[in-house]
Amino acid sequence: MKGLDVSVVQPDVIRDVVDQIWARMQDTAKDAVAGDHAQSDFRLVQPRSIGWCKVEVDLRVRRPSLRGRGFMNRKIVEDHMDGLAPHPSRLCCPSCGSHLERLAASWKCTSCKLQFSTPFGILCLAEHPSDDWGEFGEQRTRELLEDCERVSWQHGLERALCTFSDPLALLEYAVSPGRAGWWPLLNLQRSWRVLEIGSGWGAITFSLAPMVASVVACDLNLERLRFIKARALQDGVSNVQLLCWGGTSRLPFGDQEFDLVILNGVLEEAPLLGAGSPLANQRVLLREAARILAPEGQLLLAGHNRWSWRSVKSSRGYRRSFWGYKRLLRSAGFASRQAIIPLPNFQSFSAIVDPARKQMAEHFLAERGFSRCETLQLKVKSSLAPLLASSFGWIANRGRHQTSFLELLGSHAARMLSREVDTPIEYKKYRVTLRELITLELRVGTESQSVMVKIPLSAYSNLRTTLEYQSLSSLQGLLVSSAGWPEIPKPLTQGTFNKVPYFVQEALPGFSGARFLRHGPRAAAWKQLATDFIARLHLATQTPVNLDEATWNKAVMPHLDAGLRSTEQCTGVKAAHIRDYLLQELVGHSWPFVFSHGDYTPGNLLFDRKGLRLLGVIDWDRALLHSLPLIDLLHVLLSGRAQVEQARLSDLYGKALLEGLDKEDRQLVDSYFHRMGFSVSFSQLRAFLLIAWLFRVSMWVSPRESPWYGKLVWLQSNVEPSELWLKQLFGQLVHGHQNR
Q1: Would you say 227 and 144 are in contact if contact means Cβ atoms under 8 Å apart?
Q2: Facing residues of 216 across strands?
Q3: Which residue numbers in the chain have pLDDT < 50?
Q4: Which pLDDT value is given to residue 520?
Q5: Other CB atoms within 10 Å distance of the CB of residue 120
Q6: Is 363 in contact with 379 (CB distance < 8 Å)?
Q7: CA distances (Å), 681 to each of 156, 401, 677, in order?
Q8: Would you state the torsion angle of the CA atoms of residues 140, 143, 144, 150, taken in this order, to the nearest 10 degrees?
Q9: What is the Cα–Cα distance from 489 to 486, expressed in whole angstroms?
Q10: What is the pTM of this model?
Q11: 7-25: buried (b, 16+ CB within 10 Å) or exposed (e) per residue?
Q12: 117-128+174-397: CATH, from 3.40.605.10, 1.10.287.130, 3.30.360.10, 3.40.50.150
């Protein structure tokens, strides 16, 4: 039974292939049952994706050895991958450039008669597919593909990533939709045909697929294409097509076949595609990209900088400088060229900077840390950004400059807000978060009118941004006068534009609190400012509640249940023991329930340039309307310390639970108690610390978060290591009760 792939067959070719598939299945079935009597029939099953169907066979086998047990049912799904290959009219022979025709089990050139095989159902136009096993190595890659095809691609990837001590980097590379976070800078349209050369594991492919007509994933590595194939079929993505190609400088497509061509880190490998010089081969590849682009098409090119520190330190290879890329694109026939700097690099970036606007680079660099000679340093570094950046991205057009989606969205938002746009729409900040979200600060209207626009990249981030909009609206209603709370952004509007959801809120000025963490005097200042704000907010929104068990189960436990279950699964500490301890310490007392930020960390606090004034608090997507007090303050203190000491957050929570808070943090907590008008014992403070930790775990494993970052990365890096201090904590508690 093994060895049969899974495939999707287009309705227009199904009559031609069913007979062939059925014959192959009967032969396979006879071999598999080794002489047993088999009775078989087949049926067509329509999956979720309209216009596609799978051929399934229900094979009923009677084995003599089973006798009284009757029939053993098996289901075989046959693989016919023509549905995932590019349409024949698009393809050309990589040798002579003539059209290809599809045969029963291969493809053939109509001119030179070369035939091309379809291993694993994937059309292979490469003479020698790459045998580079990449990030996982040969054995792990084989196991990954087996799990993908036998169980699911999520299961296979999770098992492969669990073998790494730090799976986050590989996870971002393989599946993060943020790898395509540059797409709003393009003129992306629903009718576009996209070619991605060097598709890797398909992160960019699957990010763009829902927004365009079709995506051709082209790679020289057959194993990675097999992974993309399994993911496409299992997720019902019907507009992804696969092609194994490489080793020649001629692209196997006709003229003007695509609206967007992506060369993400591929140009550096172009010198290996032909016998010419490296520069000549790179120029040929770019000219080929221009040839297959439509007249209004765009090219996205990304590559390392030849003169970056990392390139100079190791080997510059066939990388180009800022001006080298610019000359190559001009010589290849691209009329307009726009440069961007993805930071820290194009393979995994959290920000995009326009090198033509030095203020953007200065602001990004300023957020990385405070220094005494900052003004001079920032001016020098921002001026040298085009020279020393680690990598570049280029958006090139065959014809005139194309209006980007970002500019169109900005104009749409201006109309929704009834603002007159007297200057071009420009982005002042461009962030791509680990939580699958693009955040843009756009100048909409006059020079001083800016808004923050959030574009979710997944269903998870869409849910979070929806909840944030609702939370901010609720908070505005709770506060007597929103004018007295300039630190809280006002929700402005939300909707969809070209079927892409967006959320607009007031843009707040300032620099992230992470800028001041390692600067002694500023570190003390930001902590005090953070404490003052959260105490003022909790005081304005508090509601005294006599906490009994019924209220506990209704108002508190829903936010801790997921954390308790995950903690029990990862550490073995019983959730019932933790719950009983918390009930014992907190139930039966009166506590002020408050509006909680939910993710109160230094990175979500905005300060002035010197860190002496709190200007804003952002990212309210984890906010709770009714929450126990103190949770926000405990988390901002411990998360800030974790960043300063480069320590695991779970370790610092464990240390605080076992030994108590340090003197500085305890003084801030006492000042919070004084302003709120209540106090707690040491054991109750420990209960609040444990609740703050469980709330953090619950948030990461909730439906709001991608299971990759929550259940895989966060549980592995933080919850599993908490086993030691949790068992030690409850050992102390049991010993204390026995002494009583």
Answers
A1: yes
A2: 195, 241
A3: 1-83, 313, 315-316, 735, 737-740
A4: 57
A5: 19
A6: no
A7: 48, 65, 14
A8: 180
A9: 7
A10: 0.84
A11: bbbbeeeeeebbeebbeeb
A12: 3.40.50.150
